[in-house]
Amino acid sequence: MRGWSVCTAAAHPVVLRPVVALLRDRGHEVSMTARAYGQTEGILERFGLDYESFGTHAGGGTGSKAAAVGRRSAELARWARGRGFDLAIAHGSVDVAVVGTALRIPQAQMQDYEFAGLQRKLAWRSARRVIVPDAIPIERLEAAGAKASKLVRYPGLKEDYYLADFTADPSVLAGLGLGELGIGADRAADERVLVVVRPPPETSAYHADNPLYERLIDRLCGDPAVVTVLIPRTERQRAAADERGDDSLIVPGRAIDAQSLIAYSDLVVSAGGTMNREAVALGVPVLTIFSGRMGAVDERLIADGRLGELRDADDLELVKRTGKVGPVDPRDPAILADGALEAAGEA
To answer: Which CATH architecture has domain 171-315?
Structure first.
């Protein structure tokens, strides 16, 4: 079987890595492509995954997005044509939906958020298999274009699967100049609270205005007992953080081992989804400031007390934590690889 895996956002290499590895271990050939957006290419390189890159992100405008998808899809179609792909696998990729449909490549789409509008509808309608958490009600999935007959539903979080083999690397702290910070028995001289922040997905269709984010950064930077590491999505977000000129606000200059950083942090606050759920999967206190429509996965995590909601930056409690560093509920990613292979008629 010849497969094609597509990574168009920073979360995709992390999510798809174990699936691609399992497929290759079973003797399948898998090629990978990416686009220049955020830390996507840097994370692929950090994992040692070979890829070819096509196009960039066009920003938040609907028209510019459509034009960018058109250009990128045309490039990808020229690249993919004649390669004999039996399967395309992605995490909510419109590129795969467009090119895969045009070239009649069977598609498997992973996703764990059901309210992203046209992007989700295109991806799910064109896919043979839609691989999703069982927390999402079937009626929501069908409303977004995923017929029940297409579904591969898995228990837990997608993060439980790709973090199953995770071991935290403390060198991530030294790489950020925070070698004196630590957790629990590993705590060293620096007693500051380490907070990891992920800004809003401002270029995504499901993003809504989020004034709480700036108030959060003001609150964190105003506390001398706190050091904040910001993982930006865009260069604009990076530049805005750098303009503050605050030594307690650290913005990595390249793709880093964000999962290890989360594991050694005292608190995660994110306006997105994946980083929040990584914190949950690693047993780290986490608050969401997501301003869009809450998906079923996060609704369940909030109901279960595993994810908190921050509504006012002044309510933020900043304390050192103790406890385990590592996966709380690791799961076998074979269920994801098997679901993808069903799309190609291989399972």
So the answer is: 3-Layer(aba) Sandwich (3.40)
Distance CA 130, CA 123 (A): 9
Q: Could you tell me how many residues make up the chain?
A: 347
pLDDT (mean) for 295-310 = 97
Q: How far apart are CA 310 and CA 24, in angstroms?
A: 42
The percent of residues in the chain predicted with pLDDT above 70, rounded, is 91
Residue 245, Cα to own-chain centre: how many angstroms? 28
Evaluate if residue 55 carries a pLDDT over 90. Answer: no
Per-residue model confidence as pLDDT tens digits over 96-121: 999 999 999 999 999 999 987 777 78
Q: Could you tell me the strand order of the sheet in which 267-270 lies?
A: 249-250, 226-230, 193-198, 267-270, 286-288, 308-309
Q: Report how far apart, in Å, the C-alpha atoms of 154 and of each of 22, 54, 228 are.
A: 17, 31, 34
* DSSP summary character for residue 149: G
Q: Is the per-residue pLDDT at 190 higher than 60?
A: yes
**C-alpha span between 286 and 293 (Å, rounded):** 18
Domains 2-164+330-343 and 171-315 share a fold: yes
pTM attached to this predicted model:
0.89
Burial class (CB within 10 angstroms; exposed 0-12, middle 13-18, buried 19+) of 99: buried
Return the CATH number of the domain spanning residue range 2-164+330-343.
3.40.50.2000
State CA 251 to chain mean position distance.
18
Domain-wise residue ranges, the chain: 2-164+330-343, 171-315
